[in-house]
Amino acid sequence: MTKIDSLRRFLLPCITPQTNPTTVSFPGGATTSTGASKKRLSTSLRDDIDVQDSSSSSASSSEAAVTSAASDDYYNLSAVTVPQRPSKTMVIGTIFGRRKGHVWFCVQHDRLSVKPILLLELSIATSQLVQEMGSGLVRVALECPTRPELKSCLLRSVPVWTMFCNGRKLGFAVRRSANEETRMMLKRLESMTVGAGVLPSGSGSGDSDADEVMYMRANYEHVVGSSDSESFHLINPDANSAQELSIFLLRTSS
Predict the structure, then answer these.
(1) pLDDT in tens, 40-75
(2) pTM higher than 0.90
(3) Where do the segments described as Disordered lie (predicted)?
(4) 122, 173 contact by CB (below 8 A)
(5) Residue 142 and residue 153: Cα distance in Å, rounded?
(6) Helix H or strand E segment including 115
(7) Burial zone of 64 (CB within 10 Å; 0-12 exposed, 13-18 middle, 19+ buried)
């Protein structure tokens, strides 16, 4: 073999890159292929990346499904109709009447308002109401049937009511307009928010006791439950005491 052939034999493998895997022999006959290891490593990495991508896609899909379900549940809950809460306001209520007459119930927005928002003449006698209040709690229910001509009007505009006091029927209640005498009485009481007493008649007649006007004036909580129910609850100045008087306006179906 010439020198040129010997140089070509040893130099060409160094210059030309090997495409086949290189087999390395170890003592004891063990061999390993570096090319095959590199190929398996890259393939394994690519497979791992594909698995991670598929796992991430599955996790993202699951999170999106959960988020969509939660959003649907939220909107379904929002669609549920929430019952309307009753409105509550503070008003001035005055119960008054002559000693030998009937009881009146007057409601004002404030103590300076001469024109009442509700004025009712009750069929219960003044002396009887005093006895009822002396025995404990008083619940007055005024009911009116749902007649076609009264169905669309405001509850406080109903002209005639059936009256019940602590479960017993006691005649009727009639809606009135304030006359000059009532306005003068309210004018005399405008400096008072809470109190009770007797107003002299001022007529100078011999039977002045019968003409005296007994009154009880206090703050009331006005509760509007619906278009068919309203109530007025006396607020006792003593916080530890229960409500002594409540008046209910109810429009019944029968």
Answers:
(1) 444 444 555 454 555 555 555 555 554 555 455 544
(2) no
(3) 22-41
(4) yes
(5) 16
(6) none
(7) exposed
